């Protein structure tokens, strides 16, 4: 990353404790506009917890978050969404009994004026939902279909399409491709590439090295609540990354390639 | 929408659903079936009992309207995933403090009504705050309020007046602008005209000779219809309605998507308190008195009406129109058994049976909607 671009989000020494569990023990990461930042690490490393502090779900126990250079205090996810940070959570935020289009716009309902009242613009919501889903390679039966009737991958695609639609500045994807087929995965990776080129910062969590290598600009590895370091694309080979993700057994040989960015 | 239809045509893996079946898969189905069955039954067995004369219709309409007013509040709250068991006690408590303000304190009726609303809506907010702050089930929190408020409704009249009910409201509320919003009747001219033209019967003797048997539409019914319309509109046509479904469907997912779940729930607890107080005020005006026992068991009747109307006890799904039909069934059966001369205790048997039937039907509909998961 060129140094003249200012980071969009600066996470400084973030700690998160759940009672006696220390999920994050001081993690610092900078996210730049237009980059795809891959977050890697073992199960339970703290990746989801980390991105949840970024998207307003958790308040960090210690540490500071700067958004666009100013300290940010997100009281709840709504604040983060308003700031242009959209998230696809690992456990999708979808409501099975509600229709696809109601889910798609949940928390961001489009409105139109109806006399003195503001009403939910269902026609617009339905249209956008169908178009966005088709872009992701999924033909819905209809926008009023309940999310509960979709397959796991289809649900994931709705969540991704929704985040892409609302993530004006930052798009956070927590293992978005875990349930996707070949075509839909390719679609998601292509979408990441596309929004990155539009200047959106993408935070991409995955366990799949090939997916990470395909779109990642920088790679941060977490282990037991700590950063092992951030590597830039080209500095690290897929094999090395694979070892890191496997739990960092081969760390010694990798310290060189992480090149002082620790 | 045209795109949506194209998608249906293009997807060869979807069996065509007949429009009829599609129209049937909706929360109101149980309520609609129930309403038809109930009306057919009573037309057959009590058709000539006066139940369907103008006065008869007015009779069960008013009883139904009472159920409807509290069912609307309970419905929205249940869809948002919470219960309010304090509704019945709130009715008793509200009518009692209103009567005490008007008689013991000597306040003008409008002031007594407004202050009562302010107090009960604050109590509703307190219910909601405790539920969202502690994360306790609303079942327990509002059960506590069921006892607390009923206790006060019994204690206060003794403390102030040394008796269990307070009367004489009619004289105080005479000519009061706000009292007539709850106790008055509208379209009196229309009914007088219908009486004069022999479209409806008139009294033939006594002080009311020449007046139509139905004086006008009571405000009770106007409130019920108004609240149903409002509730239905909010739920299906507004952003807040989407938040209600989301909050009850999965509050965690809703919160992570930016829905202010706590605010939605607190507002709905306030709305149920508002509905309870509307009913309390109407009753105070109608009976000209407040009684400590008023509103007993109303919370369960409201919940039953809502469930008959197709809402899921677990939240996230339901319909205000359905709840209104549930309340209509309730009123028609309760009064219909009376008209048909059936022992009134059988009403409870009926309630239990229809509740069970409705819950089973709802579970089935839900399976269809969520694709047998
Ligand atoms: N709400 C919570 N309460 C208590 N402990 C939690 C909570 N959330 C996460 N943890 C703990 O924090 C640690 C990190 O969890 P996290 O979900 O962030 O891992 P992860 O890196 O996303 O793992 P995975 O790859 O399996 O998704 C785990 O040990 C987990 O048990
Ligand atoms: Mg995770």
Shape of chain A: globular
The CATH architecture name of chain B reads Orthogonal Bundle
Shape of chain B: globular
How much of the sequence lies in strands of chain B comes to under 5%
Number of helices of chain A: 9
Low confidence ranges of chain B: 1-10
Q: Strand order, biggest sheet of chain B? A: 1-4
Could you please say which CATH topology of chain B applies here?
A: ABC transporter involved in vitamin B12 uptake, BtuC
Strand tally of chain B, please? 4
Structure explained in plain terms:
The complex is a heterodimer of chains A (262) and B (373). With 262 residues, chain A is α/β, with parallel strands linked by helices. Chain A has a domain at 9-93 and 168-257: P-loop containing nucleotide triphosphate hydrolases (Rossmann fold, 3-Layer(aba) Sandwich). In chain A, 33% of the residues lie in helices and 27% in strands. Chain A has helices at 47-54, 77-82, 100-104, 122-135, 152-166, 182-197, 209-215, 238-245, 251-258, and strands at residues 9-18, 21-31, 36-41, 62-67, 70-71, 85-88, 111-114, 117-120, 170-174, 201-205, 218-223, 226-232. In chain A, helix 4 crosses helix 5 and helix 5 (152-166) packs parallel to helix 6. The longest helix of chain A has 16 residues, at 182-197. Chain A starts with 8 loop residues before the first strand and ends with a helix. The model of chain A has no long low-confidence stretch (mean pLDDT 87). Chain B is mainly alpha-helical. Chain B has a single domain (25-168, 218-370), classed as ABC transporter involved in vitamin B12 uptake, BtuC. Chain B is built from 17 helices and 4 strands. Chain B is globular, with a radius of gyration of 22 Å. The interface between A and B is large, with 43 and 36 residues. The complex binds adenosine-5'-triphosphate and magnesium ion. Residues 47-48, 90, 174 of chain A line the site of magnesium ion.
């Amino acid at each position: 990353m060129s140094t003249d671009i200012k980071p969009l989000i600066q996470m400084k020494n973030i700690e998160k404790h759940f009672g006696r569990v220390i999920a994050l023990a001081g993690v610092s990461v900078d996210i730049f506009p237009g980059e795809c930042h891959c977050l890697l690490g073992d199960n339970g490393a703290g990746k989801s917890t980390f991105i949840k502090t970024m998207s307003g779900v958790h308040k960090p126990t210690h540490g500071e978050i700067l958004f666009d250079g100013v300290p940010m205090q997100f009281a709840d996810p709504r604040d983060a969404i308003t700031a242009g940070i959209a998230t696809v959570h690992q456990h999708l935020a979808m409501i099975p009994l509600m229709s696809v289009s109601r889910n798609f716009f949940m928390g961001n309902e489009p409105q139109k004026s109806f006399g003195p009242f503001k009403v939910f613009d269902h026609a617009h919501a339905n249209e956008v939902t169908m178009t966005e889903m088709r872009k992701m390679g999924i033909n819905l039966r209809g926008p009023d279909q309940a999310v509960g009737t979709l397959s796991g991958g289809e649900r994931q695609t709705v969540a991704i399409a929704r985040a892409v639609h609302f993530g004006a500045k930052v798009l956070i994807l927590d293992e978005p491709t875990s349930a996707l087929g070949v075509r839909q995965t390719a679609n998601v990776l292509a979408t990441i590439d596309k929004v990155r080129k539009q200047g959106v910062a993408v935070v991409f969590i995955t366990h799949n090295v090939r997916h990470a290598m395909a779109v990642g600009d920088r790679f941060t590895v977490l282990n037991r609540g700590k950063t092992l370091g951030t590597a830039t694309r080209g500095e690290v080979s897929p094999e090395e990354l694979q070892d890191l993700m496997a739990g960092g057994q081969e760390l010694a040989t990798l310290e060189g390639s992480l090149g002082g960015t620790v | 929408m045209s795109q949506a239809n194209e998608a249906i045509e293009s997807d060869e893996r979807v069996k065509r659903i007949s429009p009829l079946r599609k129209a049937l898969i909706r929360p109101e189905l149980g309520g609609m079936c129930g309403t038809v069955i109930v009306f057919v039954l009573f037309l057959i067995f009590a058709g000539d009992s006066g139940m369907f004369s103008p006065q008869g219709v007015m009779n069960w309409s008013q009883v139904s309207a009472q159920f409807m007013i509290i069912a609307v509040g309970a419905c929205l709250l249940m869809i948002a995933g919470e219960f309010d068991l304090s509704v019945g006690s709130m009715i008793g408590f509200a009518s009692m403090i209103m009567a005490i303000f008007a008689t013991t304190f000597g306040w003008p009726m409008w002031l007594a009504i407004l202050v009562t609303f302010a107090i009960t809506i604050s109590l509703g907010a307190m219910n909601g705050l405790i539920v969202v702050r502690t994360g306790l089930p609303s079942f327990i929190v509002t059960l506590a309020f069921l006892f607390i408020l009923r206790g006060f409704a019994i204690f206060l009249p003794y403390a102030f007046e040394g008796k269990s009910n307070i009367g004489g409201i009619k004289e105080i509320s005479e000519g009061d602008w706000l009292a007539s919003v709850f106790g008055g009747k509208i379209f009196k001219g229309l009914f007088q005209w219908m009486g004069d033209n022999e479209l409806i019967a008139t009294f033939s003797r006594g002080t009311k000779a020449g007046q139509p048997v139905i004086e006008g539409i009571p405000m009770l019914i106007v409130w019920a219809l108004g609240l149903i319309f409002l509730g239905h509109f909010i739920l299906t046509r507004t952003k807040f309605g989407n938040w209600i479904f989301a909050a009850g469907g999965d509050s965690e997912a809703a919160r992570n998507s930016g829905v202010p779940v706590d605010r939605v729930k607190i507002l709905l607890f306030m709305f149920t308190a508002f509905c309870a107080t509307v009913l309390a005020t109407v009753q105070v005006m109608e009976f000209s008195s407040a009684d400590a026992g008023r509103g007993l068991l109303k919370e369960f009747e409201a919940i039953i009406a809502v469930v008959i109307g197709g809402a899921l006890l677990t939240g996230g799904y339901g319909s205000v129109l359905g709840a209104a039909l549930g309340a209509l069934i309730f009123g028609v059966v309760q009064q219909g058994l009376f008209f048909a001369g059936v022992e009134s205790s059988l009403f409870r048997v009926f309630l239990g049976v229809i509740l069970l039937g409705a819950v089973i039907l709802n579970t089935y509909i839900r399976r269809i909607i969520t694709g047998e998961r």
